[in-house]
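REQUEST ID: PR-0412
SUBMITTED BY: lab tech R.K.
PRIORITY: routine
TASK: structure prediction, single protein chain
INPUT:
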Amino acid sequence: MRIITKGPKRKTLKERFNNKYIEDESTGCWTWIKCLSKDGYGFIHDYVEDKIKLKRAHRASWEIFRGPIPDRLCVLHKCDNTKCVNPEHLWLGTNNENMKDMSIKKRASWGIKNHLCKLSEFQVKEIRKMKGTHKSIANKFRVSSTLISFIKNNLIWKHI
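STATUS: complete
OUTPUT:
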């Protein structure tokens, strides 16, 4: 007869979470000191139905200390520190609220800071001065006429 025994009990998310940050007394941030993603957010392994799943550390913090995150809501930072996992520094919001918050706090990538940028600030200034159809200007800069229209109507590149 073969006896099957269970292996050692797996630590809970909270147990694994608690030794992966340090408290910064000057800011109140709980700074994540373990695994970081390329964009600077902490992450932790979670077990969901015996499968390992990566979870952003600030989302794990919310779930541990505040409860479930409703569908379609983001966990946002009041402190703008991507490594912070202090639940007092977190709040729930929609993606639109996240984008507005990012814009208000000047964290959005706009202009030449945007990795999808096709034009320089100098080119935008030139486009605004140019006469002719949007299509002819677009052909000169090898971009779409829609982009030229947006530039000319000051819908984008507003900071120039």
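NOTES: The chain has a mean pLDDT of 88.
REVIEWED BY: pending
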